[in-house]
Amino acid sequence: MIGKSIDKLKVGDSDEFSKTVSESDIYLFAGVTGDLNPAHINEEYAKNTFFKGRIAHGFLISAFISTVIGTKLPGPGSIYREQQLRFLAPARIGDTITARVEIRDIDIEKNKITMTTSCFNQDEIMVVDGKAVIHPPKAP
To answer: Are 97 and 128 in contact (CB under 8 A)?
Structure first.
């Protein structure tokens, strides 16, 4: 399966992916990355932090953006070139996070699109805001 080539995309196209963050997601991410910051994995420690409890890794949450880009829009075969992120609010165990992407600019000559990227929790609070530059797959 191949994603949408640049000739099949238009400004304003969007898609999303949602997932409820579990405790095991946080432990697995910590294990894979080596990021064992106690703000993510130790409730006793995290209770005494600014967030008053454990929070999910920001890069775990922002990776949901990659899921949209790599599986939906533009989809399989896309090449991630650049991502800018701002972490605006914490995501916690049990939060349902929705990653959204929207095409803002298309450069046909360079086979490049620019997208706004964001993640929201179940209360529609934006937890991550950003911008991505992507090379969609070439037309077959």
So the answer is: no
